[in-house]
Design goal:
Blueprint (H helix, E strand, L loop, with lengths): L37 H6 L8 E9 L2 E9 L4 E5 L6 H9 L6 E6 L2 E5 L4 E2 L7 E4 L11 H11 L4 H14 L15 H13 L5 E5 L7 H17 L3 E6 L2 H7 L2 E6 L2 E6 L1 H6 L4 H6 L3 E14 L4 E16 L5 E3 L9 E13 L2 E8 L3 E5 L1 H6 L7 E6 L5 E4 L1
Parallel strand pairs: 3-9, 3-10, 7-8, 8-9
Antiparallel strand pairs: 1-2, 1-4, 4-5, 5-6, 10-11, 12-13, 13-19, 14-18, 15-16, 15-18, 16-17
Helix pairs in contact: 3-4, 3-5, 5-6
Bound molecules: adenosine-5'-triphosphate.
Length: 399
Amino acid sequence: MTTDTSPEPTEPTEPPEPTEDTEPPEDAAPHTDGRDGRDSRDGRDSRDRDGLDARLVVDRGTFRLDLRLSAAPGEVLALLGPNGAGKTTALRALAGLTPLTAGALRLDGTALEEPERRLRVPPEDRPVGVVFQDYLLFPHLTALDNVAFGPRCQGVPKAAARAQAADWLDRMGLADRAGAKPRALSGGQAQRVALARALATRPRLLLLDEPLAALDARTRLEVRAGLRRHLADFQAVAVLVTHDPLDAMVLADRLVVVEEGRIVQEGAPADISRRPRTDYIASLVGLNLYQGRADGHTVRLDGGATITITEDLTGPVFVAFPPAAVTLHPDRPDSSARNLWRLEVAGMESHGDQIRVDLTGELPLLADLTTAAVAELALHPGRTVWATLKATQTHAYPA
Ligand SMILES: Nc1ncnc2c1ncn2[C@@H]1O[C@H](COP(=O)(O)OP(=O)(O)OP(=O)(O)O)[C@@H](O)[C@H]1O
C-alpha cells in the first residue's frame, strides 16, 4: 500500500493538520454508532445483518476497483494483493476518504454510502477508526492527548476523555508512556498509541493500513503478537491491508486476495495457502502452481507436460507442490518417479537458509535446495538437470 494517505482536495480531511493548539471543538457532534444515532433512522433495516456489507466500486482513471466485502462483527479481514491491486483505494473508500463511484457501503445495517441515492455520510461521522501506516500521531500532543483526541471529537468532556485514554494506554501496556510525545516513543509504542487512538472512538469498523510495515523485523514480531491479541478482543469488524502474507495469515480470520481491482480468491488462510488459485497467491505462499486437465491420476498441462497426482480427478484442475519437494539430478535418474522432467537452470537466489533454483523447460518450476546440494550438482545458469517429484508431494483440486 502506498504511503499517500492524504485525501484528495475535494474530500474531507482525516486527522486535522496538527497545530500547536489542536483541540477538538467543544460542540463537536456526538458520534453515531450506527445503532442508535441519527443514521439509524434513515438507514437501518431490520433485515440487515450486523457487520460490514459492501460493494465498493471506485473508478480512478483507467483503473476500476470492484469488490464485494462482507464481515461479521468480531471478524478480521486482510486485504492482500500486489502493488497497484487497489488495496489502498478499498481502505480509503471504506473510511469515506475516496467516494464510491457505485455500489453501497453498509455497516451494522446502516447505509454509510450509496451513490445511487446520493447518500454519503462524511468520514468524520462514520463509526470508523483508522490506523495509518505511519500512524499520523500529533507530534505536539502527548500519547494521552493523542488518544483522548477521538473521544473529545465525539463530544466527551475533557476529563472523561483523558480518563478513557489513560485506560486505553493501560490496556496497551503503555501507562508509563502517557506523558511522552510521539518523537520519544519507539516504533512499537507509536503503533500501539495509534491503535489505542483508533479504538478509543469505539469504532464499528477498524481499518489498519499496513499496520506493521514501519517496524523493524524484531519489533514487528513482538507488535504482531500484541496486535493479534487486541484484534481478537475487538468486537466489531476489522479490515487490514498488507503486502505481507505472514501478517495476513497471523492476524486475519479471512484473507481477501485482490488483483487488478477484483477479488481473485478469499477464504481462511489455511485454505488459501493449500489451494491457491493464481500465480500471485502461489508465489506468496511459496508453491509451484499449474492449471491443466485431469484424467484420473494424470494432469495434462496446456504446454503438453504431464503431472502424476494421487487424487483421482476429471476435468480442469490446479496442481500445486512446494519447491522443497523437488529433487534435482545431474543425469537422467534410474528412478521410478512418474514425475520426471528435463530442465535448465535459469537462475538462483537465497531463500532463507536454502537456495531457490528457478528452472525452465517442459515444466517451469522452482526448487529449494541446500547450499551443499547446489555445490554438489555444480548448478549454474544454463546447466541442464533432471527433476523428480513424488506424486504424493502434489496437491490437486478442481479449478
Ligand atoms: N489518485 C489517483 N488517481 C488515479 N489513479 C490512481 C490514484 N490513486 C491510485 N490510482 C490507481 O489505482 C490503482 C490502485 O492503486 P492502490 O494504491 O489502491 O493499490 P494498492 O493495492 O494499495 O497498491 P500498493 O500496494 O502499491 O499501495 C493503481 O493502478 C493506481 O495507479
